[in-house]
Amino acid sequence: MKNSLSCLIGLCALILNAAVANAADGSEVAISDYGWLSLLPAIVAVILAIATRQVIVALVGAIFAGALPLADWQPFTAAVRTVDTYIVGALVPVDGSAADPFYMQVILMTFFLGGLVGVLVRSGGAAGLIQPLLKFATTRERGQVLTAATGFLIFFDDYANTILVGGTMRPLTDRLKISREKLAFLVDATAAPIAGLAIVSTWVGVEIGYIGEGCKEAGLNPDSAYAIFLATLPYRFYPLYLIAFVFLIGWTGRDFGPMREAEARARDIEEAPAATTDPSVEHNANEARPNIWNAAVPLAVLLISLTAGMIWAGTSSIAAENIDSSFEAKPVEYTVQNILDRSDSTRMLLLASAAASAIAVLMGVATRSTSLAELVAGWLTGVKSMVEAVTVLILAWAIATICDADHLGTATYLSGLATGIVSPAMLPAIAFVLAAVVALCIGSSWTTMALLIPSLMAIAADLNGGVPEPFSAVQLGTVGAVLAGAIFGDHCSPISDTTVLSSAASGCDHLRHVITQAPYAVTVAVISLVCGYVPSGFGVSPWLLLPIGFATIFLTIRVFGRKSV
User: Fold this and answer.
1) Of 101, 92, 94, 97, which is closest to residue 80 (Cα–Cα)?
2) Residues 6 or more apart from 320 whose CB is under 8 A from it?
3) What is the pLDDT of residue 554?
4) Do residues 119 and 132 both lie within one domain?
5) Are residues 265 and 320 in the same domain?
6) What are the distances in angstroms from CA 475 to CA 318, 337, 464, 478?
7) CA–CA distance, 217 with 457 (Å, rounded to integer)
8) Residues 87-135: pLDDT tens digits?
9) Which of 373, 356, 251 is nearest to 294 (CA)?
10) Where does the sequence pass through the membrane (predicted)?
């Protein structure tokens, strides 16, 4: 590891020395001539993430590294611009142009959803979603399927999913002699994949934000970000295949590799493992009693208000366009895609999440689950839990600004390298592998998405002959591959936050969780490449590839899996 870091640092030093030498010779460095320097923020981000295990430190360092060549290699100027130009500029324009509400809408929506999660936990609503299902788990197979199914109930946040499902299901899985390693896998495999696929979750704003940045880089309308997000769902082969894999593993009771050994050891244990004493995952005796209505009503308000708001905003926009257009112009049709393109999704998500947060508090008061003070405290706790995520989001936006065509021109440089070398058909597969490697190294799927989506969307557009087509198979496959590959790399990374939380919530040794989960994740990733991203790049419909992949997963489990009896 140290030798690899030394080589990377040495490479960066050579690049910097060459750039300084060119400046000393009096040669001008145009935006399009930064060359390898345009990759400097990404390189520094990966190096610092591996060396420090701190994503925020890595991102700040990456912004500073990108600011150096833009500041003529003046460290003090670069440091000042890191804060007052690029970080501040990620929220409000610093050039006097009109403010774009998009970024603040995403941030506030993320806070409101985090607060909603906090209220659902404090009011007993989250626990109420899970409790009615416990009586159906009478066998090991049913227990595993039920544990995986509960991940769909806590679809709105991967952290809440991990902690609630792991802590709630652990006593049940212990009684059924399901290993802690298997519980950690079931929890981890149904947290980020489901939150990433859900059309309403704490991930939505982040993913839409990154896709919006990619739209700008690719010359597309950023307002199409949510429509592109929805269109990429069938191209998320890894999370979709992984969810199928989880249920088939549970339903058949078959395992292979280190997981089968762990299950065999758990079957041989006469007494259930002792409960963990980790206070972060134990239930609080003072929490409100489970009440499913305290969760069902706010979540229904969230979904209904979002759907109604987007339909209203989209149809109103189309109507206004048709009124303002000339009589000769063809009127805009009221299709689902046109409505989504004009639905102002971030604003509707913000309003829906604010309404759901308020309803969640009112439900807690109306059902007398706990006091208003406790509910407000729960909301604030949920908001605080999203501070780090929002911080990462802001820093990632700053990096995207530094790498855009008006600054370092990273996408332009990568597109130049890819043109004539990378086949458009292979771009989704390459994007999946690249995202997996980056996420494995830095342990953050969100940061991986931020680093790769803007550049790869621009490359996909460039490989399409420079024609910005947002819904081409290559563009959708590439975006879906990054979103999926980031989750795969995150699953295999020992420094991933969700991996650590899954281990803790399940009472499983962290290293054992990584060792037993990795073979399963790699198996699904290989199937995703062979049955998903490679053929989809050649134009095969994802709706045809999904059942093929599901069948391959079933055959793989039947051939290599054995019951731990």
Assistant:
1) 94
2) none
3) 95
4) yes
5) yes
6) 25, 16, 9, 5
7) 7
8) 888 888 776 666 678 788 888 887 888 888 889 888 888 778 777 766 7
9) 356
10) 33-50, 55-71, 102-121, 183-206, 226-251, 292-313, 348-367, 379-400, 420-442, 520-538, 544-561
Task: Tell me the two tokens of residue 33.
Answer: 């001539």
Within 10 Å of residue 368's Cβ, how many Cβ atoms?
Answer: 9
Strand pairing category for 254-255 and 562-563: antiparallel
Per the listing, tokens 């820093």 go with 395
pLDDT digits (tens, 9 = 90+) for 382-396: 888 778 778 877 887
If you count them, how many residues does the chain have?
565
Q: How many CB atoms lie within 10 A of CB 419?
A: 13
Q: How many domains does the chain have?
A: 2
Is residue 361 located within the same domain as residue 323?
A: yes
Running along the chain, 565 residues long, what does each successive block of 10 average in pLDDT?
Answer: 37 35 36 70 80 80 90 90 87 72 82 85 80 76 88 74 74 83 91 84 77 82 82 94 94 91 79 40 57 88 86 86 68 73 78 92 91 91 80 80 78 61 82 85 77 83 69 87 92 78 79 89 95 92 95 94 76
Give the model's pLDDT for residue 481: 94
pLDDT at 529: 95
Q: Which residues pair with 562 in a beta bridge?
A: 255
Residue 515: count other Cβ atoms within 10 Å of its Cβ: 17
Helix (H, G, I), strand (E, B) or coil at 470: coil
Distance CA 364, CA 370 (A): 6
Contact between 37 and 69 (Cβ < 8 Å): yes
Q: Tokens standing for 287?
A: 């929490």
Q: Tell me, what's the pLDDT at 323?
A: 78
Host domain of residue 74: 1-97
**Dist CA 563 CA 24 (whole Å):** 69
**Does 231 map to a domain?**
no
What are the C-alpha distances in Å from 287 to residues 124, 279, 282? Answer: 7, 14, 11
Judge whether 187 and 151 are in contact, CB under 8 Å. yes
In a domain, 299, yes or no: yes
Instruction: Give the span between the Cα atoms of 529 and 237, in whole angstroms.
Output: 8
The answer to whether residues 58 and 127 belong to one domain is no
Domain membership flag for residue 304: yes
Q: What gap in Å lies between CA 185 and CA 391, rounded to an integer?
A: 28
Pair (89, 137) in one structural domain: no
Nearest to 206 by CA among 500, 492, 482: 482
Q: What is the rounded CA–CA span in Å between residue 453 and residue 390?
A: 18
Q: What is the pTM of this model?
A: 0.69
* Cβ density class 92-120: b for 16+ within 10 Å, e for less: eeeeeeeeeebbebbbbbbbbbbbbbbbb
Position 165, amino acid: V
Residue 385 Ramachandran class (φ > 0 left, ψ -120 to 50 alpha, else beta) = alpha
* Domain C-terminal end among 382, 415, 433: 382
**Domain co-membership, 160 together with 46:** no
Say whether both 90 and 157 belong to one domain. no
**Residue 387 has which token pair?**
């501070």
Same domain, yes or no: 26 and 171: no
Of 40, 69, 97, the residue at which a domain comes to its end is 97
Q: How far apart are CA 375 and CA 75, in angstroms?
A: 47
Contact indicator for 84, 94 with CB cutoff of 8 Å: yes
